[in-house]
Amino acid sequence: MNKILVLLTVTLVSAVTAVAQLPRLGATISNNTKMYFGIGRRSGNHDSMKVVKGSGVTFLGMRRDSIVDSVVFSADEVPTLERYLRDYEKLLASKTDLFVSDTGMRRILGRVAPRQFADINVLRVSVRLSSGSVKTGVPMVATQDNLLIAEGEAYDPAVDLPQQKFTCIPVTLIEDLTPDVGAISPRWFKVRGDHTYFNTAVRLSGITFAYMQSFPPEFEACINPVTDNELKYADVSKVCPRSADAYVTAFSGVVASVMRPDAFAELPFGSRFRRPSLDYQPVSFTSGVEASMYVSELHDIGFRAMLVAQPPTVQDSTVQNSLGMDAYSFHLLGTWHITPLDAIGFNTVGVSATLGVGPSILSYRARTYRDAVNLTTSGSGLALDFALSVNMQVWISKSFTVGLRGYSMYQHGLSNSIESIVDERPNQMPWEVLFIVSQQSAAFFGAQLFVSYSL
Can you say whether the dihedral through the CA atoms of 210, 212, 218, 219 is positive or negative? Predict the structure, then answer.
């Protein structure tokens, strides 16, 4: 009780001199500064601390404008306390533990608790300002209102803090932010002067800061501590917008039929006919181009022109009843590309899907044989295609993306016409074969390699 009365008396008497004459401290210090220097490590929870300078120094812990605690340093300890505050970062960086080897420092360690808060291995970032200029430095600490960066390629608290080699950048002036420094970055996260965009950009880009829990008092003119539950975030698609440029894609691959047309050859067999089924060529080669244009953050629309050709059978001497497309089939589809990879390279690997629908022109080659000799005819058809592809793509540069797609297509037959074969021999009745496609629809699965170029 007597101690409290004496303390109150000292406080009242010294109120007019409650102006700090200590290095780096004002008359009132925040909880951030209290934590940074470890002042009163056994003290309770305070709103702030007041500094009273008399013959010695007293730190008064305040809560709701009431004194709830105190930390006292005698007059002969003040020079050591001043050195502790002034050279704090140098003492922490010293290879020799000066807090142990220095007798004066050991004496005050019961009332101050030095702790290294700085991470000197943090990577630099760059920010593009509304003026168009770009500032690069080591990120120190940030709130939703300001970003503080240390100038230069690295950060040394013992050197940079005394020289005040740091810059306070208001979030309202930041247009873009990137964690890629030292090269032309493809990953510019949009901030647009909005603190919610800034919070999302920091989180998505994986930026770390030199100070996470507490920071030097020199920063407090720029930074006020903000708790995580006070942060608000913007939608990812706004912070990482895709390029609105159109792009073209070239592709090539193979597809195999899993559902084939029902077709047969009507062959003369004496006074009757026999109808052997036509084998369908199982593997086709595909190649083509696509052109797509930006519609929204998640969608592109465009068209696809694709040529499908089956392995030639003209030179195949094996006798067969078959239906193939040795010439070509041409497909023209309107496409809807869902969740495409960001053309500016925010995502280096992505998965997307493409839906397509459109007409196709088919060129058939039908074959049968007589007396072990193949006979060939041709025909044409129309179909309506429905295609789905799932794409795995990898960003290579700002302009190029390569990938692999799994491809499926259902081909709904609309019409077909195949020329009959008439084999005429001397002194014999004409031998005529009809080719009938009772069900022209088919389904395909396959794989394609592709490369996209952003215009």
Answer: positive
Provide long-range contacts, Cβ within 8 A and 24+ apart, for 266-271: 266/433, 266/434, 266/435, 266/436, 267/368, 267/433, 268/431, 268/432, 268/433
Single-letter amino acid code for the residue at 433: V
Does pTM top 0.70 for this prediction?
Answer: no
What's the token pair of residue 205? 């880009």
Instruction: Give CA torsion, residues 327, 333, 336, 341, to 10 deg.
Output: 30
Task: Give the E-state strand segments of 134-282 in sequence order.
Answer: 134-142, 146-151, 166-170, 174-178, 189-190, 247-259, 262-269, 272-274, 279-280
DSSP state of 341: P
Residue 419 phi/psi, 5-degree rounding, is: -65, 140
Helices (H), 15-73: 31-37
Euclidean distance between CA atoms 191 and 144, whole angstroms = 11
Question: What are the Cα distances from residue 296, in Å, to 289, 338, 340, 402?
Answer: 22, 10, 10, 22
Contact 281, 325 (CB under 8 A): yes
* Phi–psi pair at 285, nearest 5 degrees: -105, 140
Q: Residue 332 carries which side chain, given as an amino acid letter?
A: L
How many Å apart are CA 381 and CA 336, to the nearest integer? Answer: 26
End-to-end CA distance of the chain: 80
Quickly count: other Cβ atoms within 10 Å of residue 414's Cβ.
14
Amino acid at 152: G
From CA 451, how far away is CA 244, in angstroms rounded? 18
- Helices and strands, counts by H and E, the chain: 9, 24
In this structure, the number of other CB atoms found within 10 A of the CB of residue 239 comes to 26
**In this predicted model, what pLDDT tens digit does every residue of 168-183 receive, in sequence order?**
999 999 999 998 886 5
pLDDT tier at 228, thresholds 50, 70, 90: low
**What residues form DSSP beta bridges with 445?**
256, 408
Question: Is the predicted pLDDT of residue 42 greater than 70, yes or no?
Answer: no
Burial of residue 259 (CB within 10 Å: 0-12, 13-18, 19+) is: middle
Q: How confident is the model at residue 436 (pLDDT cuts 50, 70, 90)?
A: confident
> In this structure, which amino acid lies at residue 367?
R
Task: Confirm if 126 and 208 have CB atoms less than 8 A apart.
Answer: no
Quick: pLDDT tens for 403-428.
Answer: 999 999 999 999 988 899 888 888 87
Give residues with Cβ within 8 angstroms of 107, minimum separation 6: 77, 80
Q: Which among 231, 204, 216, 131 has a CA at the least distance from the CA of 174? A: 131
Helix (H, G, I), strand (E, B) or coil at 451: strand
